[in-house]
């Protein structure tokens, strides 16, 4: 007697969502295949494949996550494979979720820290997805601070955490038990802040690759046990704020080594942690950072949108320096798109905002870097992208005059902008001299971005490759090894 195959249950959840999204079976299959291409996957689904899924067949591998992302993009809300009646699978989009609660946020970001600090090299190869910016930025904009973040045996209204009797954090334990962690003191939170300043200085001077892994391990072994510890409301907000800052920095250093998909995930989680902290202004800074990455990757439209969401999120009450930063970053997005009028308007707003800043103004620590040197740097990039080379050179020179030596990577970027502008003006020898200086500086850093800036300049040199100045440049760079 022939054994019958097991009876499958029709997938009514998937059918309902297909109807809501207005997809045909063929249309859904086509979108899944296209999304797979974004991740280097050669998928060959068709309308028959979707029919099988509707009849109860489970797609394999990462396909359920891809299907869920197709619906997320279409419907504008985050959907998981389980929401579609599909089995859980390899989470292609893990880390892009904007968590529903502080507890869930700890779980998501803690998982990222642990995987990144281990031998999960594939995590650093995850692709950046522009569509992954939409839902988190929207959820941040319309969301409110969490009602309660306190944990453990401390009431939500105490705000004070005892400083005595804190047991040592068990470093060997990867996942501390919930609710039984150590009490978090103000000293612990101050230490997180100090560590952030240390790693920030290393990043500015030597590039993101210099100490990135050490930062991630610190987050895993120190920050996560604190987040899972005991603290009241006031301490909890400060703790989430410090964790958000370190997580954003982990994203920034990942971005600097071209781990763009990983960086994107860190930024999304930093955004969520800043919401738990009740720090709206810092959330806008995270969005600014996301916008910068989008500019670097050539996604100008998304960069502009992120900058505008940041502006909406903080409103007109933000300090002038913060306003200047937000407008300058929007200008960078318009510059990439070649939108001269919009770029110029944003630059004017940024300049006017910075002019209204006064020495006694209260400026968030994360915005203090934004001064005349940084504004000139932003303007230099904008005018370079708009091929307005004479003005670009003027701003780049001013930035280099004003910028402190500790910002070595920023000085390198600005030198390349100046070199490219000199080249655009036909000043080949000066351009090559500046380019060679930048190449030497890049060789002393662990920064993929620094190398890419130099390579971009070299691509611009190609039409002049037979000129004596260019041959001299190549000889100097070759001698650097």
From TrEMBL:
- Give the residue ranges for region: Disordered: 151-183
Superkingdom in the source lineage: Bacteria
Q: Provide the protein name.
A: Regulator
Question: Organism source for this protein?
Answer: Streptomyces durmitorensis
């Amino acid at each position: 007697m022939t054994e019958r195959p097991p009876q499958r249950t029709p997938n009514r959840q998937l059918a309902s969502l297909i109807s809501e999204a207005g997809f045909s079976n063929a249309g859904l299959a086509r979108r899944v295949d296209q999304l797979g291409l974004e991740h280097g996957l050669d998928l060959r689904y068709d309308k028959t494949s979707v029919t099988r899924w509707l009849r109860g067949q489970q797609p394999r591998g990462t396909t359920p996550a891809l299907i869920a992302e197709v619906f997320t993009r279409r419907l504008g809300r985050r959907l998981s494979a389980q929401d579609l009646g599909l089995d859980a699978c390899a989470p292609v989009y893990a880390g892009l979720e904007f968590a529903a609660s502080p507890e869930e946020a700890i779980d998501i970001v803690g998982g990222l820290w642990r995987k990144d600090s281990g031998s999960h090299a594939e995590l650093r190869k995850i692709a950046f997805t522009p569509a992954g910016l939409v839902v988190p930025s929207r959820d941040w904009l319309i969301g409110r601070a969490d009602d309660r973040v306190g944990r453990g045996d401390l009431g939500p209204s105490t705000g004070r955490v005892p400083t005595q009797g804190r047991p040592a954090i068990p470093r060997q334990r990867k996942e501390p038990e919930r609710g039984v962690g150590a009490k978090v003191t103000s000293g612990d939170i101050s230490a997180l802040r100090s560590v952030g300043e240390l790693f920030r200085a290393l990043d500015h001077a030597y590039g993101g690759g210099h100490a990135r892994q050490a930062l991630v391990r610190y987050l895993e072994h120190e920050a996560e046990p604190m987040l899972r510890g005991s603290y009241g409301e006031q301490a909890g907000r400060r703790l989430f704020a410090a964790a958000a800052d370190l997580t954003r920095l982990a994203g920034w250093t990942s971005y600097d080594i071209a781990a763009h998909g990983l960086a994107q995930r860190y930024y999304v989680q930093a955004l969520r942690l800043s919401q738990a902290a009740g720090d709206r202004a810092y959330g806008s800074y995270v969005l600014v950072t996301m916008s910068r990455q989008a500019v670097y990757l050539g996604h100008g439209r998304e960069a502009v949108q992120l900058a505008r969401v940041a502006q909406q999120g903080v409103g007109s009450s933000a300090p002038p320096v913060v306003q200047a930063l937000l407008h300058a970053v929007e200008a960078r997005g318009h510059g990439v798109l070649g939108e001269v009028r919009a770029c110029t308007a944003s630059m004017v707003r940024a300049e006017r905002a910075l002019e209204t800043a006064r020495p006694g103004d209260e400026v968030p620590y994360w915005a203090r870097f934004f001064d005349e040197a940084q504004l000139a740097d932003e303007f230099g990039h904008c005018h370079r992208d708009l091929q307005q080379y004479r003005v670009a050179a003027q701003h780049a020179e001013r930035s280099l005059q004003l910028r402190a030596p500790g910002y070595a990577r920023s000085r390198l970027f600005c030198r390349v902008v100046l070199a490219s502008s000199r080249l655009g003006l036909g000043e080949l020898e000066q351009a090559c001299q500046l380019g060679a200086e930048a190449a030497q500086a890049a060789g002393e850093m662990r920064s993929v971005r620094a190398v890419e800036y130099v390579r971009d300049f070299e691509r611009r040199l190609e039409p002049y490759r037979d000129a004596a100045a260019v041959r001299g440049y190549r000889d100097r760079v070759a001698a650097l090894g």
